[in-house]
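4.2 Preliminary Data

To establish feasibility before requesting continued support, the project team ran the inverse folding procedure on a target of 418 residues. The structure was first converted into the token representation described in Section 3, and no sequence information of any kind was made available to the design step. The complete token record follows.
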């Protein structure tokens, strides 16, 4: 008994293990099919080595991968499993084929409906959710079975309780592992991003400082020269062009300086209200032009130290991206700033074009832009500013549906340096 149980647990651990070992870095579309294949193999093995609880009654853990895949992937992902499950069940033959078909069809129809709600939970929530769903489906399964078996077996309900407990334990185990893998991947990505940012901000800040001085000097001399009376109008035009281009170079240098450390002259201790309002005001014409409504909900009272200019620029970048994501069909840019225990939480939500998983991963890479006129520096600066206040940002995006940026900044900081 115990051997079969462990064997079944091993079958279910196998896809998780393979995924961690071989595919952890690229959980993209292609690998989704590999994951489905692995889950199918696990499912077949579970069915091939069931436990015989008592003469005539057999059960296995096949619905665990089925329910988990249905919750994470919805109809599209679980459909192949549905085919595999029933195909293999036909192969095995014997009694109960129709019950199995009926039951798996019910799960196939009902469980993916819960997928959306499931994905909205946090890691712990998802573990509990999957356990609750497995509990309900298995309880329902045994309830239906009871009509056939109750008279046949002396201790039907005792055995069912046992089976249910096993299901719960195994689901909790597998789900915790899956969630841990997901969280590890995310943590590593955040870490990589932070490292990248650190190198860039160190380098750009020093270079930008160095370049700024010669630019200022050149600017001054060119201006003096353009005041001269001996130059021809044509020459004067050359000077105008030069000054204009120089202005652009200075702008770029200033943008790069924004990545650097906060400037002590700009530091304030406030609750972000002024910055949010300011950005809302200056972007409202741009929003109107793109048929976008900006809606702000502000309920934060806790204060923190930050560089006013950087924070303003950070919001400009985020709001602008939101508006630009909606420029085809218009929409609403929702900004919500609230306080939670020891944290300020800023949510910036648009219902624009959204991004794929791969695109979200690219965010914050220098020069990554999908826009014709884009610079791909906006998000880099956003990440840098949030890093400066020791905040965290998560991005939740769906292609065609929209994007939500969730920023949380701790208000109580022990390690402040400046
Ligand atoms: P830019 O706006 O100049 O392209 P950013 O660094 O601000 O550069 O953004 C990089 C890319 O990230 C954008 O080109 C866009 O593809 C994507 N992006 C950023 N924010 C959003 C959003 N709210 N919705 C959809 N895509 C976004
Ligand atoms: Mg931008």
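Position-by-position output of the design step:
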């Amino acid at each position: 008994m115990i051997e079969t149980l462990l064997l079944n647990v091993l079958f279910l651990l196998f896809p998780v293990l393979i995924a961690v070992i071989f595919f952890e870095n690229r959980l993209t579309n292609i690998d989704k099919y590999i994951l489905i294949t692995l889950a199918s193999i696990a499912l077949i093995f579970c069915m091939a080595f069931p436990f015989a609880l008592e003469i005539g009654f057999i059960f296995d853990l096949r619905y665990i991968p089925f329910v988990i895949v249905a919750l994470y992937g919805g109809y599209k992902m679980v459909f192949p499993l549905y085919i595999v499950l029933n195909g293999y069940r036909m192969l095995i033959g014997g009694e109960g084929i129709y019950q199995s078909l009926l039951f798996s069809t019910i799960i196939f129809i009902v469980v993916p409906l819960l997928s959306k709600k499931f994905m909205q939970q946090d890691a712990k929530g998802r573990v509990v959710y999957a356990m609750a769903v497995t509990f309900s489906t298995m309880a329902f399964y045994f309830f239906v079975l009871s009509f056939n078996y109750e008279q046949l077996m002396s201790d039907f309900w005792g055995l069912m309780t046992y089976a249910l407990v096993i299901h719960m334990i195994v689901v909790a185990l597998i789900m915790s592992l899956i969630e841990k893998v997901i969280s590890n991947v995310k943590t590593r990505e955040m870490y990589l991003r932070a490292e990248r940012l650190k190198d860039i901000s160190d380098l750009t800040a020093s270079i930008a400082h160095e370049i700024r001085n010669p630019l200022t000097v050149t600017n001054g001399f060119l201006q003096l020269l353009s005041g001269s009376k001996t130059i021809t109008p044509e020459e004067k035009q050359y000077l105008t062009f030069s000054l204009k281009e120089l202005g652009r170079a200075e702008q770029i240098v200033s943008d790069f300086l924004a990545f650097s450390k906060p400037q002590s002259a700009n530091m304030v201790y406030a609750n972000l209200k002024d910055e949010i309002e300011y950005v809302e005001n200056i972007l409202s014409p741009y929003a109107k032009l793109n048929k976008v409504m900006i809606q702000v909900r502000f309920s934060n009272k806790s204060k923190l130290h930050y560089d006013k200019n950087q924070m303003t620029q950070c919001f400009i970048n985020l709001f602008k991206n939101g508006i630009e994501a909606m420029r085809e069909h218009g929409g609403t840019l929702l900004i919500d700033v609230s306080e939670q225990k020891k944290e300020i939480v800023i949510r910036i939500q648009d219902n624009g074009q959204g991004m794929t998983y791969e695109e979200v991963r690219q965010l914050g890479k220098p020069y990554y832009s999908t826009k014709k006129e884009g610079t791909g520096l906006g998000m880099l600066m956003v990440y840098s500013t949030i890093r400066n206040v020791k905040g965290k940002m998560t991005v939740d995006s769906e292609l065609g549906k929209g994007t939500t940026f969730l920023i949380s900044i701790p208000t109580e900081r022990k390690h402040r340096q400046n």
